[in-house]
Amino acid sequence: MTLASEYENDDLNPFRVRSRREVIALLRSIGERNQLVRMLINHGQDTIVTSILNIDEKNDIVLLDCAPTAIMNQRVLDSENLSFETVLENIRILFNSPAAESCVYEGLPAFMIPLPVNVVRLQRREFYRVPTPFTNPVHCTIPVKNDDQVIPVVTTLHNISGGGISIVDEKKLIDTTQGRIYEKCRIDLPGGPVTVDLQIRNLLEVTLTNGKVINRVGCAFVDPSNGTLGAVQKYITKLERDQNAKATGLG
Q1: Nearest one of 191, 180, 189, 184 to 219, comparing CA atoms
Q2: Closest Cα partner for 166 from 208, 206, 193, 136?
Q3: How far apart are CA 120 and CA 142, in angstroms?
Q4: Which residues of the chain, if any, have pLDDT below 50?
Q5: From CA 4, how far away is CA 232, in angstroms rounded?
Q6: Which end of the chain is least crowded, N or C, by CB within 10 Å?
Q7: Is 179 exposed, middle or buried (0-12, 13-18, 19+ CB in 10 A)?
Q8: Matching InterPro entries, A to Z (predicted)?
């Protein structure tokens, strides 16, 4: 129900392809069709665009294109968690790897990662989560009850889909008990704010480079109005267009 950064979410289990033969076939098709692959580094703190160069079945290795800069290449090599996302025939494909190593493929620098044990195939659009920009963040204000008071807690969106959002709670002020519902939350989309009830679905603690630990909270929309869904989908479409333009050098 997510981007690749939430690949291990249990909600995705029904969509996992676990057959080695099918995993290889999927990844090989992605490479042969020259599909761009988004690589998320350290739970999405950095992102680069890569592609699958080849599948080494004998050694269970996937060969990937390098990043355009030495700095980004080193960040990939230093990362202990890599997640990948792409699209094949309008189906979102997610997989991950614990780490990458440098190598040479056809005389050029490349990465190699272990063949994924499983791959997630998502066909329902509500599962497509799109990352929101760091440079122009979208905020979500959540009313948190504290004794007899209601405190508005301002969080930042990490990603968004037709079914929910992932938010960053830097001060850990939100009760992240699974199933907890927060009513009348305001999401300040660029096209105008929307109000929706949110249900807590999952929690991921992320350690930043400065050592600070923050909460990344996955939330599902609860009975959203058609107007809210329309505004969310309009924003998702804009994000996807911007990202596609950037990936192809047009943005």
Answers
A1: 180
A2: 206
A3: 31
A4: 1-5, 126
A5: 20
A6: C
A7: exposed
A8: PilZ_domain, Split_barrel_FMN-bd, T3SS_YcgR, T3SS_YcgR_PilZN
